Batch of 4 targets.
Target 1
Amino acid sequence: MRNTLTADLDRIQQEILDSASIDASDHPQQLSLQGAVRAFDTPPKLRNLAKILEKHEFSDVLHTEQQAPGAAVEWLVLARATVVVYEGFLEELFQRALPLSEDNIYWDQVLRHRGWLGLYLLQTLPQRLWAFSRLLATQAKQQIDATDFTLGTLRNSVSDRTLFRRIAFPHIQGQKAAMANKFISLDTMVKQEVMAKRKGLRGLQGVQARAVGMLATEAKFENADTLQQDVIGLASMLESLSDELCSDPEDLEKSEILDATAVHASASPAGVAQTLIALSTDKIADSRAFYRASASIHSKPSVLTRYWPVGVGLYFSGSTILKFISNRQQAIEEWIRETLETAKSFWQNWVIEPISKIIATIRHDEGSEVALMSRRSLAADMDSLERMVVDFAVDNPEFASTTDLDALKSAAREGDVTPVLIAYEKNIKSPLKNAVTGSLIRSLLIQVQKTKVDVEVAINGIDKLLKSQELVFGFLGVSPALVLLWAGGSWCRRTLGLKKHKMGSTSKIETVKVLRTIERLLTTQREGGKLSYKRRGLILCEVQVLRKYAKRVPSSLRHEFLQDLSDVEEATALKTDAVRQVIARIYRVYTTAHIL
């Protein structure tokens, strides 16, 4: 929108400067103006514009021929200055959009819940009582100063039962006399006041939006031939809008609507320059002051008004809280100490140590291996079994099938203790005799050693299985602690508002509300038609609100989100269907990405 206007002017400037042929001795003023044009390559601040324009002397006569020497350059300087005023004025209007939107949301929330109405009444009660007491004091002073003062006249002047309502609820004064004197419940009066504030706020918002829509729609520079009329028209529009924004919204609805196509064809370059100077120094500032005064009447209560009940509650409960803390100081200190110690132990035992073990496992640190038995236990027992079997075979050669000791060792290592079993089978036939001689007991003890080795082999298999899954067990051990840390950190970020790179639930809700508002504006518009000034301005203002919320969009999608908002701004110049398509795309894309 603003970039398009600047781009068109850049194109026209290039055409004019390329075709300009001016003799420095004949037209030094025009060469000065050419320097002024180039000075606008870096757009100045609005507050500095008057100083730049006052340095140059503009013609008091309107050029009837566009081809007059240097006339195009003169209008080019004014066009650049007009763009500065246009952008400054538009930025001023956009800056008002977010507070107006937030105040609208606040009043909607108050009206939605009865408890909020009661809280609003409590928050504003001191102001109402103060206004009523001031009126009573004023009336009493007037009655006392009167020549016919009596206690009866003073009593009658302050005994009017509708007096408090009219002072405490000023919106009643604008109602008809019959309605003002009619009995109205307190909650109804509060609700009517809130509705009146919201209505006034929306009226103010509508006036601002209509100005934005008119500027966005009618501001254009077509070509070098029409530059003069375009500058005059845009400057006249800016002046008229600044005056319009200093008027009451209700009066504007009753008055004739500004004709955006009307231009002052007789305006001279000097007259346009004076208009731009007045806009940059006074008129925009006056409209800002009028807006602030009007918004203060309808805006949400101040921070002091909203939170004084909390402050009073803390003040009166402060002594009780301090007394409670002082009486339980030792218990509180002990609780804090135990909490810190618990947190420290949790961090050390459930986070640091498991992670250290995982690192040691990855590095194959022998000290970190998981084991169910000693590393050399199986080998020692196996060697012992081999020696037992070999010695038994040497002492009892009749039971051995071979005299090869290596073969016997190999068989024993594989679990084959046949010589011992043969001897056991023979000795068991005469158990008492062989038990006394010791041969039965020897064969039994060798089998016990064999059983021990078998058990250790089984345990060794389980041990190898554990070692193969050692890393898995390490991560399983540290996972609960990491989950607790993540949950606690997320809760702290939500509580303290530290979620910088993710749109919080509140921002999501507000973003959806703004998108819904835009879609409602499109739905109530005639199907396929162009947007009116007011509707286009309202949509553009809501887009500016969305730009504020874009800070909460993840940085990886923020550029795309802002690009989509720019598409909405550009689509408002077309038919409503184009805007609907962009809004539908925003819903579809960012809902899928869980941004909305």
Target 2
Amino acid sequence: MEIKNEDFPEVEIVEETLPHEEKRQSERLTQEELNSLGLNPLLETFPIGKKAIKIFIFTLAGILGILLIAGFWALGLDVSETLVIYSQGKFIPSEEGAIRVAFIDDAKGFIPIESAIVTLRNAEKKKANEAILFSGMVGFNDAGSIVMKMPDWEPGHYLMKVSARAGKIEKSAVFSLTLDPLFEGSPYSTSITSATEKVNKPEFFDTESGIRIELLPENYVLASSLHNLIYVRTTDTTGKPVKCRVGLKLASGYINGSIPDVITTDSAGLSAFMIYPAVNFLSLSVSLLNEEGKRIGGEGVIDLPVEPRIFRLRASRPWAKEGEKMDLRLFSINRSNPYYLDIYRNGIWIYADGGYLNSFSTQISIPAPEKPGIITLQVYGSPSYVGKGVSSIHVLIGKQDEKIEDAIKKVARMLIKENIDAQYASLVLDDKIPIYNTNAQMLLAMLLSRLDKGFYEPKIFYTTRKTDEKAIANIKNRIKRTIIISLCAVSGIFAVAVLFMMALALRLHSPFAQKYKINTTTAINGETFDKNHHDYSIAGGETDYGMGTRKFFIALAFIAAIIAAFFGLLAILFTYLKWTFVF
């Protein structure tokens, strides 16, 4: 609005106009003046000074940086090694029991265990009935084998703690197991009794002579590329053993080495020979021969089942006395295979061992179990896969004063019970098959080989995987909550600080800011008029534009309080209600 003289003829108008250059600069503030309006005046008058403000800013930046690093670190957390326990979960008080422990890495696979400590305690009373079952080295296999003698405690549930170490890796697992004097063991996971034999038995019956010739592999199935023992059995039409001369020839397939041309069975109708199949099929031609070696009657071809195997286990003797050493021979298709050896009695895992082979044939000596009975020994190459790689045999553990004749009849009764080769076994019980010192070992070994075979799969009973994943998840959640709480606190402090500095700057420097708001003034009888803003005040008085600085400061403080309360509420929720979120 422009004030003219004709509008006020009775007064004298005195107009003060700023020079052109000064007016232009007053309308456009320089950068230096803008700085003077903001931080610089504040730094000059704020009590804590420039260094304190810089420290404050750098501290906030550092905290935010640490929080970001912690967040990315939490994202990378994952379960690396898992402690795995192979066990049946049940044991008989005062008897042997076996478990196997292993570290499994998702990327590297098995990590060899070096040492372990196994303790057992009452599940209800933490410090009562605690016993150390094992403490020491467990070898350097992928999985450590542990043999324990269980304490003579009451039947019930107990807690077993296994602490294992492999290099810098140490983990513990606590799990529940049962002491049960009536535990009957586990059945075979899979039977390896030859299905071919059940349908088409490996035998030839000569109609002219009435003699049956049977070829019985020691493990029902021949293992290709390994040494195998085949029993030859000759019986008449009633199943009674007959001493015979049998001619052998290779009909089809390939073998390493050779087989005998003629083999003679004894008074129990038994003999045996070794064979080394090179491929997964094999047929042998058999015939009866007279004393001059001429064929009697017809000639038959017997197909033998052959399957790939990694190992072939054989005992030097088919039986051992309790407490003695048992000598075993382990054949392998590889020179440096790791192996795992288990012993089961009535389906109960009582012994575990293992090692590394240094040749294709390795001698192994282990203690015989203390309790008499028929035991099953099995060997395989990996605790994570048993399957067809297993080799299984039976050995009879007898009392110190037990005779081999009694041991043979014990096995015969077992065969009759399982309805395997019952006709021949009944002849043994009826003393219709003569037992001599010369043939007793072979007869016992053949009878043991006729027992059903399979493998007991040591299953994973407990793993720390879920516990480790839960612990990692808890760590991540704690880190996330810490980050959220810290961000809330930092954001609240920063917001309050910024608002406080803005309010303080306006409070301290509002007169300095006001002088730039008046570009030109017009004086009329002692009153001044602002030509730009059309407002006026008494000359010499302060000009108040909009909200006063005191009210503005109060508003800023109120906003800062609301922000601080909001972030404080978030911090409380994340702290006490354990809120979380997914990155």
Target 3
Amino acid sequence: MKISVLKNETDYNKACKRLYDFDFKGNKHTAHEIQEMEVLTALVEHYQNRRAKFDLPEPIEAIKFAMEQKGLTQKELSGFFGGETRTSETLNHKRPLRMETIILLHMYLKIPLSSLVNDKLNIGFKSKKKLSQAQALKDPKLLQKFRNELVYN
């Protein structure tokens, strides 16, 4: 078989059929056939990866997933959102996520930024102060001070 880049579905199907045919031959492959299988496998994987579409989770679902994984309640997250009411409204899709909230959730709960927004942001604090995840969850007033220190472009 002539091996070339898989440019379309037809090429992909031919390569898959050829690999399938190798399966029926069992373990009796020549060195040339083994090399052909390796190349075809790489081409098929590359084609599949180019075509694969992985949807990122919706931001609120990403937050709820993180809450579940970390055993957190809405009340414990109130410092990130600016209060219990705002937390509830945001998690129930009645209020949009604020940029400050997105940044804090990313920094302290380690929710991937790509799950919370589509653009990558350069984030940090104006001062050199640090706040641990435990402090952020335990003391909403302290977290509020850090909200005001956020710097992002």
Target 4
Amino acid sequence: MKYKVNVQVPVEKRGLFAVKKTVKETGTIEVDGTTYKKMKNE
């Protein structure tokens, strides 16, 4: 069974005056049952 999980991924973005920032973006990924249980335990 596939589960849809919302994860936060750190992404480097260019801000004002070419300053690099690390921003967390939320994305949805699909994982299977065993991976889902591991992620739920963490």
